[in-house]
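User: I'm putting together a small comparison set for a docking exercise, and I want a reference complex before I start. The sequence is below, and the ligand is coenzyme A. Could you produce the 3D structure with the ligand included, as structure tokens?
Assistant: Of course. I'll restate your input first, then give the structure tokens for the complex.
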Amino acid sequence: MIEKFYDIRRMTSDDADAVVELSRLFEPVSTTLWRGLDPDEGVDWIRERLGLPEWAGFVAEVDHDLIGFAICKDMNDDTRGFIFPQANETVHLLYLAVDEAFRGQGVARALLSECEKLAHDWGRSGLLLDIASDNPSLRIYQRFGFEKLGSLVFLRKKL
Ligand SMILES: CC(C)(COP(=O)(O)OP(=O)(O)OC[C@H]1O[C@@H](n2cnc3c(N)ncnc32)[C@H](O)[C@@H]1OP(=O)(O)O)[C@@H](O)C(=O)NCCC(=O)NCCS
């Protein structure tokens, strides 16, 4: 058996700077929050969320360097903004990323497994996530056991 080369632990507010540094990993796949993120704002955003009981994060580290993270939020029956009824009773996985140098070695799977344990502890019956349809990670999530609920299409009329 291959020995695990990383540790997984709960994210604390002391990790906020390192997490924001790693948020560069979302630049190719996200057009929203992390794009052009002001680092100070990002750090504040993470610290504030981690101070709330319905938010949690996990980090993967090698020799105390962060190489990946996951952030999730208990939906707690507040499914505003979600069109699918299955969003009830779930934990929303908002962010999952692993440094390019450490991909394909099970780090994301291990982070996800911690999110699943947390969802059980919170009494929830599923994990929910949304992802752009052209994000290559869609296939990876399906390998993790996620199934498509449906899709939301954004349209724009040029005026
Ligand atoms: C998605 C991401 C977190 C996966 O991290 P990872 O540590 O490489 O994933 P794992 O090693 O745990 O692999 C997970 C599964 O996907 C498969 N996989 C990994 N990389 C893959 C790739 N490029 N293509 C196809 N499958 C892949 C693995 O084989 C594994 O399946 P298995 O356990 O059944 O063999 C990482 O690619 C990433 O950070 N991407 C950029 C950010 C992102 O898109 N996040 C998701 C949207 S928020």
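The pocket of coenzyme A is lined by residues 25-26, 29, 95-98, 103-109, 131, 135, 137, 139-140, 143 (CB under 6 Å). The helical segments are 16-22, 39-50, 107-121, 137-143.
User: Thanks, that's exactly what I needed.
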